[in-house]
Design a protein that fits this description.
Number of strands: 36
Number of helices: 2
Structural class: mainly beta
Shape: globular
Helix content: under 10%
Length: about 500
């Protein structure tokens, strides 16, 4: 019998990449081929995606909507499955999408709605996204709280948290795996790392397939930090992490993690009627950061008068009060090194308040990565003036395609191509024709420079401009898979 040739390393890597979504690290040369002469890597759809959703609310009067969606053509090419279920053993499914291109939804009431974990495979895996939106009409936690479910990870940055009186910031940690996760939380204030209560912020155990909430002020009871940054890391395992913020007099919302530390950042989608905008930045490395601050609006970029630059000391959180920065026009903050030859990585978020007096409402916008090839945010509403998409091109002109999916209750998809001029923020509304129920918005880069995007969902209640802003990030629906060598004879010698 002829002996079968063993698999090449490239073939093994390809199989693993297709299953796990891990990209190959072989760098192509200028002609698209690897410098060692091997065939160029191919882009292939991921075959499995994981998502983790935090528990939505502790309020008995909370009303939560879940929306799950995979972009792409409806079923007919390949098979797949997806489901999200409560983050406990033997939990029943909450959402089970059936095919790409068609969102599914579910609702939950009260404080018993669970955190969720789930996976998608086959044609439902590439770009799978899920959004949860909670509305609480009265009480300390009133407001519209929105957050996208995330892939589990090991490292998260949360600028704009607080441990001050009048704020309750809870880190939600959800473990989707069958082994316990061990988590550390560090808090950085204006003077550097805050000294935690003995052992409180280290080795926090999150049991398998469970969720845990941690009140940040309990970790540093001696510190009253109005503006700080939380860093969540794992010693073992992985978790999904988000921060739920409640603030006396201005409501509540989710604070998602900032994009990874970088020398330049974009914070897209500040509402036109923002009454208060406060920028919070941390330089997590060993070097200070000097940043140029600019607002990209519909007509171009400007430097806020008196707030043109921000100095951020290494390991410390810095704050800039930008007040009513947008003044009637929506915009995005663009942070770049003051000296292009000297760049230090930073993370950033803005706290935004709309309204005045007893009618104020709170929201957060964190720095986002570019939309890349494709990015999606689910749970947009077809009612007039509820959903506004903001697109920002920080460096060069760009063209994108925006697609509104059918709603969970039907309708026909709609799409539009948009050109975004360099240094501007363009806004638009787009909904499915005849759409009913929540729908998804997908942004695809067609040409030009990088584009950053966010959508604002406004659901006013009793004269309060309740809102939440979610950023778009590349869905990484494809991975780079090396092409296996055609000649395997060398392995049979």
């Amino acid at each position: 019998m002829k002996q079968r040739a063993p698999l090449t390393l490239a073939a093994v890597t390809a199989a693993l990449a297709a299953l796990t979504g891990v990209a190959a690290l072989t760098a192509p040369a200028a002609d698209g081929k690897p410098s060692d002469g091997r065939p160029a890597a191919a882009r292939m759809p991921v075959e499995r995606s994981l998502l983790v959703c935090p528990g939505p609310s502790s309020s008995d009067i909370a009303e939560t909507t879940y929306t799950s969606f995979t972009p792409g053509a409806p079923a007919g090419e390949g098979k797949g499955s997806a489901r999200l279920l409560g983050a406990t053993k033997d939990a029943k499914p909450v959402l089970e999408p059936k095919e790409p291109g068609k969102p599914v939804g579910a609702t939950a009431s009260g404080a018993d709605a669970p955190a969720l974990t789930g996976s998608a495979d086959g044609v439902l895996a590439p770009g799978w996204t899920t959004q949860l939106t909670t509305k609480v009409s009265v009480g300390r936690a009133r407001g519209v709280l929105g957050v996208g479910c995330t892939a589990p990870g090991t490292d998260f940055w949360f600028p704009a948290v607080s441990t001050a009186k009048g704020r309750e910031d809870y880190v939600h940690l959800t473990n989707p795996d069958d082994a316990a996760a061990i988590v550390d939380i560090k808090i950085f204030g204006p003077d550097g790392p805050a000294k935690p209560d003995a052992g409180a912020s280290e080795s926090i155990r999150v049991d398998p397939r469970s969720t845990k909430t941690v009140l940040l002020s309990s970790l540093v009871p001696s510190a009253q930090l109005a503006d700080a940054t939380a860093h969540v890391t794992t010693r073992a395992g992985r978790v999904g992490a988000s921060v739920q913020v409640g603030e006396e007099g201005v409501g509540a919302d989710w604070l998602p993690a900032s994009t990874d530390p970088a020398g330049s950042l974009v914070l897209p989608g500040i509402p036109a009627d923002a009454a208060s905008v406060r920028l919070v930045v941390l330089a997590p490395g060993e070097e200070d950061a000097d940043l140029k601050v600019r607002l990209a609006g519909p007509g171009g970029s400007i430097s806020p008068a008196g707030n043109e630059q921000l100095h951020v000391k290494a390991g410390m959180t810095a704050v800039m009060d930008l007040k009513d920065l947008t003044r009637g026009e929506p915009g995005s903050l663009v942070l770049t090194p003051a000296d292009p030859k000297k760049s230090a990585p930073v993370v950033a978020a803005v706290r935004v308040v709309r309204g005045s007096g007893a009618k104020q409402e709170l929201g957060f916008i964190t720095a986002t990565a570019p939309v890349g090839t494709r990015a999606t945010v689910a749970d947009n509403r077809p009612e007039e003036n509820t959903t506004l998409l903001a697109l920002t091109a920080p460096g060069a002109d760009a063209k994108v395609k925006v697609t509104a999916s059918p709603g969970t209750g039907g309708g026909e998809p709609a799409s539009k191509e948009v050109t975004v001029k360099a240094g501007t923020t363009q806004t638009l509304t787009l909904a499915p024709a005849g759409g009913k129920g929540a729908y998804a918005l997908t942004v695809e880069t067609l040409s030009g420079g990088p584009v950053h995007a966010a959508r604002t969902l406004s659901l006013p209640d009793d004269g309060i401009a309740m809102f939440t802003v979610q950023g778009f990030s590349d869905d990484h629906s494809t991975v780079s898979v090396p092409r296996a060598a055609q000649d395997l004879s060398v392995l049979t010698r």
